[in-house]
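Q: What would this chain look like folded?
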Amino acid sequence: MSQTATHTIREGAFGNGTHLSCRACGAKSPLGPFYACMECFGPLEVGYDYPTITREQIEAGPKNIWRYQPLLPVPVDVAGFPNTEPGYTRLIDAGNLARELGLRKLWVKDDSGNPTHSFKDRVVASALSATRELGLKVFACPSTGNLANAVAAAAARAGIRSVVFIPHDLERPKVITTAVYGGTLVAVEGNYDDVNKLASEIAGEEEGWAFVNVNVRPYYSEGSKTLAFEIAEQLGWRLPQQIVIPVASGSQLTKIDKGFTELGKLGLVDATDYKVYGAQATGCSPVAQAFRDGHDVVKPVKPSTIAKSLAIGNPADGPYVLDVARRTGGAIADVSDEEVVEGIQLLARTEGIFTETAGGVTVATLKKLIETGQLDPEAETVIINSGDGLKTLDAVADRVGPKVTIPASYDAFVKAGLQ
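A: My prediction, written as structure tokens:
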């Protein structure tokens, strides 16, 4: 047993996780409610001592993220606690979209099928486990929308208090689909970076609060690895050659890379090469700009884009996204709001998948990367659809609707040329 403040952490609370490691200087810290290195104030992530893990062991698990329990910072009995059981979403063979774009093979990892219709259910489930094991009593977050939904829903399921902070001008559907769960929803005047700053201040002052993407971030972010695990398993235990991922804070991209790397080291897949590409909206593209300019530092920007779920002007993982893209031979690119809307419609028209604005960014960026020759059309490619289009209806509301309005008669049908 180990002690944090007034709470005793039980043995195995974080599964095979053994310590926290600084991503900047490598210094190690004990497992606990810590997120900044005591040596250099760099960000912390979970380190592991993995036993032998087999494909058969994983395949025998539940059809949600807990099948990967040995690879996550969660206890062996995590599935026995009330949670939203996210994951194991569809990997769709996107042949229609591939043909339209000139790709040999394309897959869409469709995370709109999660309980609150975005990938955030994965990271929140991991954060909820850490919150419980650390004895924290308030489940909280700053959010651009999808995380707000996931935190409020998970807290309701677990029977704990939630407090969610959002920008005051968030899309109305995301406000409603957070408030409906009955937790405390707080609208903050300003953009996401203002909200995040407030959350960090509260986390530093209030005891017993678990801000999922602040003071329990090391555990929270590990949930994104399950996207990598599922993609590899669904491909028949192999890695794709290319993957395009939307970038907000950048955590999803870096953890998918970490997941692929861990699978290779554990012998669960052949450690083949893959390229990682990041997608941003031009109105909030600090990582893409740094990539183009050859910089290692990401300069903060003030967001101005319809892709609000990606509108983080000072992305915490920005430098690490650059590292991953450059190390793997990928790239970070951005697209205009007009291209975002076209991307939403393109995916819907070709594959019957209605994505939110973040997915529109990803599809449009995929198209741009092909057109600019940065992405190999002959290589097997995966793109991430991180959320459901029903959350961002305003993006396409003035673009779609009835083709024609006719009287209720067959003659009118014929006259309109609809045969």
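The CA atoms of residues 364 and 372 lie 12 Å apart.
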